[in-house]
Design goal:
This protein is α/β, with parallel strands linked by helices and about 550 residues long. The protein has 19 helices and 17 strands. Strands 1-10-4-9-8-5-7-6 form an eight-stranded parallel beta sheet. Strands 13-14-12-15-16-11-17 form a seven-stranded parallel beta sheet, sandwiched between helices. Strand 15 (about 465-470), helix 16 (about 475-480) and strand 16 (about 490-500) form a beta-alpha-beta unit.
Length: about 550
């Protein structure tokens, strides 16, 4: 926000009369206070005020209509066959607004390469709501560009604030790296530090010039990333082609051990004296040139020794994604952006967009604390006597945990005649997914738990119930989900489990689409949940023990 400026009186000062006053009666009344006529600022004036003090690139964004989408064959970029095959496998036939805007910026001809010898690629800042498809907006271009690599180097770093988000983004990368030689790794602290080191860098005691990497793409939380920068031999960021900061405002508003300045410093080649250098380059404390590194510096006397030691600028490209991009000048400066562009997916789909859903569909929202969400799922599948249900989660990790929890609960609560549930995720092979779908269609499985990404390619005619375990932020995605039930004139029910802090935004989304009146609020009495509480508590303990053993196997 722009700080308010003090109002200055620009009216003419009162001048003494040049003619002498004859009497008090004939004197003009004194103007005690200048007359101000308050007026409402126009929309254009408000925009001009907002732009005051902002960099030109931030004040003039590329505006993207959030309702825009394009089919894959119509988007103005050429995608590799492996990416097209992966899109087909996942059931992706069109790209959302943020994807149609960002993909051409990253994949146009002059940037569709690993490195540039002519200067830096421009950085891009993207403002788009969570759930708008922004993850694929950087996953697809990164995979497309890095898939041409020959030597495995750490060339893409994605920083996220939480472990759950890391798991969610890894699911997307794993899905699109199929058919390529690219390797994806994570740093979250969920496994031991030594185990992460062995997964990320070569297990060598020798310090290697230019470092080493077993992965091309690394997804990390900031705290764990800093630990490895400071303590892992041969771990280097100097070959990065992409630095992605997802949930940027959230990360920039917290210090996280001053992670940003540490990462930016680590992007540059280390200055180290080498007594046994192959040439004079690298001696006397000057940087060691690495023929595969995108970052270069001049030699001691600024005279090129070979063609690879000619001074070049870094090819690093920073991509920032956030629901609300910061306008704090200090924070913007700290990012050290180069030739940035700002893409803004503004608002939500137009208010006049109306979605038609079957008249046989009944929709309910259940507002609850986040800790009670699994308990509500158990209530739905047990107390409401459903035959088949499809449950949507935001990530494969969330789907995995929920499926395990339900399985533990069934063993404890109902050893006989238990309700059968399974996850349906990209972690499973194609054959496993096919078998699970067959069991579900045959009625052997009652509940299928899936993330949005994999569910897009799911071949199902209809189910009795849809459960939104994690609610969507776009009406279009909501319609796609609940549209899995009440097909072909059959009745169906959709339950949306809404966290207390999400209720306002979920209702606003429904209201903008003219659909709020169709979704009834459902309250569940504690007496309905009480019989399950003991088994639920035991199930949580069993899940915790299982996850701990999975991370630290004996």
């Amino acid at each position: 926000t722009v700080p308010e400026e003090p109002i200055t009186d620009t009216s003419e000062p009162l001048q003494p009369s040049s003619e002498p006053s004859t009497s008090l009666a004939s004197a003009q009344p004194l103007q005690a206070f200048p007359k101000f006529v308050p007026r409402v600022l126009s929309q254009q004036a408000k925009l001009q005020l907002k732009k005051l003090g902002l960099p030109a690139w931030l004040a003039n964004p590329i505006i993207v209509d959030p309702s825009k989408s394009e089919t894959i064959d119509k988007i103005n970029v050429k995608l590799s066959q492996s990416t097209l095959d992966n899109c087909q496998t996942l059931g992706i036939t069109e790209f959302f607004a943020v994807q149609t805007a960002v993909l051409p910026l990253l994949l146009k001809d002059k940037t569709h390469s690993l490195y540039s010898s002519h200067g830096q690629f421009g950085d891009i800042c993207i403002s788009a709501p969570t759930g708008s498809g922004k993850t694929l907006a950087y996953v697809i271009p990164i995979v497309e560009i890095l898939s041409t690599r020959v030597v495995c180097r750490l060339r893409a770093l994605i920083v996220l604030p939480t472990r759950d988000l890391v798991a969610q983004v890894k699911e997307n990368f794993d899905a699109f790296c199929k058919g390529t030689d690219l390797k994806v790794g994570v740093m979250t602290g969920q496994t031991s530090f030594a185990n992460e080191q062995s997964q990320i860098v070569d297990n060598s005691e020798d310090i290697l010039i230019g470092g080493s990497s077993k992965v091309d793409i690394l997804i990390a939380t900031p705290g764990r990333l800093i630990d490895h920068i400071n303590s892992t031999p041969n771990f280097t960021l100097q070959h990065l082609r992409f630095l992605v900061v997802d949930e940027a405002d959230r990360l920039l508003n917290q210090s996280y051990q001053d992670w940003l300045s540490t990462v930016l410093k680590a992007l540059k080649p280390k200055k180290e004296a080498r007594e046994h250098s192959m040439s004079d380059v690298g001696s006397n404390g000057f940087p060691i040139h690495d023929a595969v590194s995108p970052a270069w510096v001049s030699t001691v006397f600024h005279i090129p020794v070979t063609d690879v030691s000619i001074s070049k600028t870094s090819s690093l490209q920073k991509l920032l994604f956030s629901a609300t991009l910061t306008r704090n000048p200090a924070k913007i400066a700290s990012l050290q952006l180069q030739n940035p562009r700002y893409v803004a997916v503004q608002g939500a789909p137009s208010d006049d967009v109306r979605y038609t859903l079957p008249s046989t569909l009944k929709e309910y929202m259940i507002v609850i604390e986040s800790s009670q969400k699994p308990l509500i799922v158990l209530h739905i599948i047990h107390n409401l006597k459903i035959k088949s249900a499809l449950c949507f989660t935001k990530s494969v990790e969330s789907a995995h945990r929920l499926a395990l929890l339900i399985q533990f609960f069934e063993k404890i609560h109902r050893p006989e005649g238990k309700f059968t549930a399974s996850e349906y995720s990209s972690d499973l092979s194609q054959q496993e997914r096919t078998n699970i779908l067959k069991r579900f269609k045959d009625g052997e499985l009652k509940l299928l738990i899936a993330s949005d990404l994999i569910a897009r390619g799911m071949d199902l005619d209809s189910v009795d119930v849809v459960i939104n375990y994690d609610v969507p932020v776009y009406m279009k995605k909501y319609v796609h989900r609940v549209g899995r039930t009440a097909r072909a004139g059959r009745e169906g029910i959709a339950y949306s489990i809404v966290e207390t802090q999400e209720a306002r935004y979920f209702k606003e989304m429904l209201s903008r689409a003219g659909h709020l009146k169709d979704v009834k609020k459902l309250s569940i009495k504690s007496s309905k949940l009480e019989p399950m509480m003991s088994s639920y508590a035991e199930s949580l303990d069993a899940l915790k023990e299982h996850m701990t053993n999975a991370r630290h196997p004996h």
